[in-house]
């Protein structure tokens, strides 16, 4: 794992350093501008924090909320989360494109176009998530028998596989709103909201469910993860629809780079 991660990192750095866009936008010119660096840090730091928080939330769910019930539950969660990680990749790809399109639209002062790009991405992600989730649910038995490699793990995975379909749809909506807000430069508020929801639902909720409703076993953990993501989606949707970002520009369109 360490070697593969290192190889991937070196490969991505080489791609970045040899990209033709560096020449096109003057990326090879080294100049230290503290004001611009401060703007980049203020805009980018909350995005990085949200990514870290997402990883912590899923790790917390896997190890504490689900893994406490034994190795079979832990193995089942690992299989299902790995499946979910694979299924959400198209949403992340579309989300990355959405950041660019919304950033460009708002940079031109065209809020209506930004809304149009968002609605198109949301529709595509939703359609994909519904179709992929349905196929995963319908073919869960052969898929999980192959991925799990253990009858007990496979049987448990099949009983909770419907959570993958639900989480995939929620993640599609989350990805659309998250990347749209990112493209609009609205990052601090979503990061703070995400943190508070994670503490309340996964932290406090995990403690209460684990101690008061132990009969739920891993269903409780999966349920809390689902509720956590649903709350995040609802708040991100509220933030986007309120359009606090409508007047924002990360840089001036007249600025010469």
Features:
257 residues, mainly alpha, globular
Description:
With 257 residues, the chain is mainly α. Helix content is 81%, strand content 0%. Helix 5 runs parallel beside helix 9 and helix 9 packs parallel to helix 11. The C terminus is likely disordered.
Summarize the SSE layout with pairings:
Elements: H1 2-17, H2 20-24, H3 34-66, H4 71-87, H5 89-107, H6 111-138, H7 140-148, H8 151-159, H9 162-183, H10 188-212, H11 218-242
Helix pairs in contact: 3-4, 3-10, 3-11, 4-8, 4-9, 5-6, 5-9, 6-9, 7-8, 9-11, 10-11
Short summary:
It is built from eleven helices and no strands. It has helices at 2-17, 20-24, 34-66, 71-87, 89-107, 111-138, 140-148, 151-159, 162-183, 188-212, 218-242.
Order of SSEs, N→C? HHHHHHHHHHH
Instruction: Classify the helix fraction into a percent range.
Output: over 70%
**How far do the termini sit from each other?**
39 Å
Largest sheet: none
**How many strands in all?**
0
Number of helices: 11
Pairing-aware structural class of the strands and helices? mainly alpha
Q: Which percent band covers the strand fraction?
A: under 5%
Overall mean confidence score, pLDDT: 83
Rg value? 21 Å
What is the multimeric organization of the chains shown? single chain
Uncertain regions spanning at least 5 consecutive residues: 251-257
**Shape estimate:** globular
């Amino acid at each position: 794992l360490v070697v593969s991660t290192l190889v991937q990192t070196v490969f991505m750095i080489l791609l970045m350093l040899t990209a033709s866009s560096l020449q096109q936008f003057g990326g090879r010119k080294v100049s230290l501008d503290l004001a611009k660096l401060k703007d980049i840090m203020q805009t980018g730091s909350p995005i990085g924090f949200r990514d870290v928080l997402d990883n912590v939330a899923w790790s917390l769910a896997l190890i504490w909320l689900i893994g406490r019930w034994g190795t079979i539950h832990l193995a089942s969660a690992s299989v299902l989360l790995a499946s979910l990680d694979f299924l959400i990749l198209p949403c992340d790809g579309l989300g990355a494109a959405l950041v660019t399109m919304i950033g460009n639209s708002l940079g031109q002062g065209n809020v209506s176009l930004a809304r149009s790009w968002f609605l198109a991405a949301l529709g595509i992600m939703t359609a994909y998530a519904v179709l992929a989730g349905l196929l995963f649910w319908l073919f869960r038995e052969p898929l999980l028998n192959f991925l799990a490699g253990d009858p007990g793990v496979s049987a448990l995975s099949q009983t909770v596989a419907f959570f993958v379909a639900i989480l995939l749809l929620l993640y599609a909506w989350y990805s659309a709103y998250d990347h749209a807000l990112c493209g609009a430069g609205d990052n601090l508020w979503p990061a703070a909201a995400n943190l508070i929801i994670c503490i309340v639902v996964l932290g406090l909720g995990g403690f209460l469910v684990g101690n008061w409703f132990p009969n739920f076993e891993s269903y409780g953990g999966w349920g809390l993860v689902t509720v956590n993501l649903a709350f995040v989606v609802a708040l991100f949707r509220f933030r986007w629809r309120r359009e606090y970002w409508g007047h924002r520009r990360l840089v001036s369109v007249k600025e010469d780079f």
